[in-house]
Design brief:
By secondary structure, the protein is mainly alpha-helical. It is about 65% helix and about 5% strand. Strand 6 and strand 7 form a beta hairpin. The chain is globular, with a radius of gyration of 26 Å.
């Protein structure tokens, strides 16, 4: 027996909340169905969030609280209350959507930048296969990481979720646990539910009133003159970003905002200062710097600097985790050997899906990946998926136990996967456009697999603490991953379509033509511009930059280009012909993935700017500052990171006050952090996130349907609403934002004991 495992043999046996001998309802139809539905809802909101700011937050606790509340409501209507094990199944199935949404959001939009189209089957295959593979790869490591390493790997979010489930346990669950009657359990569960649903309602109503109804300006901003000429500040005053800032805490939020400050108040003004007098454009820009707006400078130069910083930060975080990677691999292999050699346990709490079916399932997925035409996969790519998938699923599972899912560097693992994959392809001489898709498919599936493996390990830790049956949890998260992946693909395509603009060819590629007889696909205009042109055009996927930028074009029957299709995700043209503006999705990490693929396979990147970004990350690491969060801030618009900073500062004020209360003074730092992570403030913030993000999805969909109503409302607000347009709009729009900030601070404060 390995030394690491034998050292745990003398430890007293762990006793879960529900003993293995108990026989409570667990994998019931109602628990699984509710988990699947909540998983799809939170997956959709997480996808919206990752396209805006490149990150998500754990859905386990919000899903658990909502499940408990809905089951309690069912009981009041004459039904039966849920057991703690049923609630655990619901949160397990419901957590899969968030991790799949992250993987899809940080990888698949890169296909647009690489000159290809978002195909529904490609997106759905990546989500389904990556999600299921990650779960299967983690199952053999459960005993090594969850059981043998109990007390060493904390799994902070999973532990906090277990506490929420135990606090709301029903009477039958408390009896099975051997607890005396707890008269406060129902009241505590009702209080938590009230907070998260209240936050959901506030976030939903606020966002709809703000954006859909044009109640007030959604992004107050100001541009400076000399000495910070072209410098600017702004903030997207949305409830979901405020909530994310509170959940991730002051350190990460402030670090990300600092990166935005560097971009918008240092780098952009410096480029403007040194380039204003130049009489020729500076590559890769195509216009004189003197004619560039702050947004033009960001698009032409800052994005490449930010991409270099993010790539370096991700690789540095990965190198820092190398000791953990080695421990994880050895522990995972030991766990697999122990599982293969051990007699199947008779304890309910120690039963996994049999290893035979895990291996068959993983090999079947690899076979499907190899044969799937939309992925442009080959045998070598499939082998790389299996190798990198196992490596990073192991790493992700262990890192989730050490630092939690919010700080797990999945992006760094994806960057490393793409770098090694593209270098291998380059050695093989595979540099054509087809291999863009192959490399991205490898990176995307590994990204989703490692992300879902981390979520699975977190859920299994929750189940280990409450006394769940691992095999039933594994079935639940497989079902949750499958259903969420099936619905997230169409949502991703619809979000992209809702913000797509059709740019007249005269603006980007005048007199550009092609041979229309060679084009077979056709399409019509969609979204806000659909009413202005009902014609059907042929689709041309242009991969070079001769005569106009690479991308998707609409061509008439004679071969003349009529429109360039500027995607809703990472597009650059926000002005419609009628003068209204469209809000694009930035998908910051997807841009990075596309830069890596193009940079290595085609050597097309402005490497000087990328190296500038690399140096920023290295300098920060030398100063002892984690570079990845800062680098993401350099890339993101300051308007996205500023509200994160506000939320983080509210968390700092609340934690500072709460930690001074008498009943918290003797807690350790870890206990204080755990208390903060399961506090009323986090619950309200989770409600803000879910409500605001869900409203954003609804708004994005309706903008492409109720186009005339949307335009009329925008015209009226521009002419008559001083909160939306005018010299005082920036200041007036801060009033409703201040109200939800004050509400968050008030609810998050602990009340002093009477």
């Amino acid at each position: 027996m390995p030394k690491e495992l034998s050292s745990t043999a003398s430890k007293p046996a762990f006793k879960p909340y529900i003993p293995a001998s108990a026989n409570l309802p667990e994998l019931s139809i109602r628990a699984l169905v509710m988990g699947v539905i909540l998983g799809m809802i939170f997956g959709a909101s997480s996808l919206y969030l990752v396209l805006k700011v490149g990150l998500t937050v754990s859905a386990s606790i919000p899903v658990a609280v909502i499940a408990i509340t809905l089951f309690r409501l069912t009981q009041k209507l004459g039904g039966k209350d849920s057991t703690i094990l049923e609630n655990n199944i619901t949160q397990t199935a419901g957590s899969a959507g968030e991790s799949i949404a992250f993987g899809l959001g940080v990888t698949m939009p890169a296909i647009l930048i690489l000159g290809f189209d978002l195909e529904i089957w490609r997106v759905m295959l990546v989500g389904v296969l990556g999600g299921l593979l990650g779960i299967l790869l983690m199952i053999p490591m459960r005993r090594a990481l969850i059981v043998e390493q109990h007390g060493i790997l904390k799994y902070p979010e999973g532990t906090a979720c277990a506490e929420v489930l135990k606090a709301a346990a029903d009477q039958s669950s408390r009896e099975a646990a051997g607890e005396a009657n707890n008269p406060n359990a129902h009241a505590e569960a009702a209080k938590r539910a009230k907070i998260i649903f209240g936050g959901f309602a506030v976030g939903l109503i606020y966002k709809i009133a703000n954006v859909a109804l044009r109640g007030w300006k959604d992004t107050p901003e100001a541009t400076f003159g000399a000495p910070l000429k072209a410098g600017s500040i702004g903030a997207e005053i949305s409830p979901e970003l405020l909530g994310v800032g509170y959940v991730i805490g002051p350190r990460i939020a402030a670090t990300m905002a600092a990166g935005g400050v560097m971009s918008y108040l240092l780098l952009i003004p410096m480029i403007k200062f040194f380039g204003d007098a130049l009489s020729v454009p500076v590559s890769p820009g195509t216009k004189l710097i003197s004619e560039m707006s702050p947004g033009n400078i960001r698009s032409a130069y800052i994005l490449y600097i930010g991409a270099g910083a993010v790539a370096a930060g991700g690789l540095i975080s990965l190198l820092r985790a190398m000791p953990t990677i080695w421990r994880s691999l050895t522990a995972g292999l030991s766990g697999m050997r122990n599982t293969a050699n051990a007699v199947q346990s008779t304890l309910r709490t120690d039963k996994d899906i049999p290893m035979k079916w895990v291996v068959i399932g993983a090999l079947t997925i690899i076979a499907i990946i190899t044969a799937a035409t939309p992925l442009h996969m080959n045998f070598l790519g499939a082998i790389l998926i299996l190798v990198f998938g196992f490596l990073f699923a192991t790493v992700s599972s262990r890192l989730t136990g050490e630092i939690g899912s919010s700080s797990n560097p999945i992006s760094g693992m994806t960057v490393a996967t793409l770098l090694f994959t593209c270098l291998i392809f380059l050695i093989m001489g595979w540099t054509g456009g087809q291999y863009y898709v192959t490399a991205l498919s490898v990176g995307a599936i590994v990204c989703i697999a490692s992300s879902n493996a981390g979520s699975t390990s977190q859920d299994l830790k929750t189940g280990y603490l409450v006394g769940a049956t691992p095999r039933l949890q594994q079935f639940a998260i497989l079902a949750g991953a499958l259903t969420s992946a099936l619905i997230l693909g169409p949502i991703l395509l619809k979000l992209n379509e809702s913000a797509t603009t059709f740019v007249p060819a005269a603006q980007v590629a005048p007199n550009l033509t092609t041979d229309a007889t060679k084009l077979s696909s056709t399409m019509q205009l969609s979204g806000p511009q659909a009413d202005s042109d009902k014609a059907t055009y042929k689709v041309w996927q242009k991969s070079d930059t001769v005569g106009g930028p690479a991308g998707k074009y609409l061509v008439d029957q004679s071969g003349k280009v009529v429109y360039m299709v500027d995607p809703g995700i990472n597009g650059t043209y926000t002005d419609l012909p009628d003068g209204t503006k469209v809000k694009k999705f930035d998908a910051p990490k997807a841009v990075l993935m596309s830069y890596i693929i193009k940079g290595i396979l085609d050597q097309q990147l402005p490497w000087t700017l990328v190296i500038f970004g690399v140096m920023i990350a290295i300098i920060l690491e030398m100063a002892g500052i984690p570079s990845l969060a800062f680098a993401v801030g350099v890339y993101l618009p300051l308007s996205s990171s500023a509200p994160l900073f506000v939320g983080g500062m509210i968390r700092w004020l609340v934690d500072r006050r709460n930690n001074k209360l008498d009943h918290n003074k003797n807690l350790t730092e870890e206990e204080k952090q755990a208390a903060g992570d399961s506090s009323s403030g986090v619950l309200l913030s989770s409600g803000y996130i879910a409500g605001g993000a869900l409203a954003g999805i609804v708004i994005a969909f309706s903008a492409g349907i109720l186009t005339n109503f949307d335009k009329s409302l925008n015209d009226w607000a521009t002419a008559h609403n001083p909160f939306f347009e005018g010299i005082n709009a920036n200041a007036l729009s801060m009033i409703p934002y201040a109200l939800i900030i004050l509400l968050l601070y008030y609810v998050a404060r602990e009340k002093k004991p009477a």
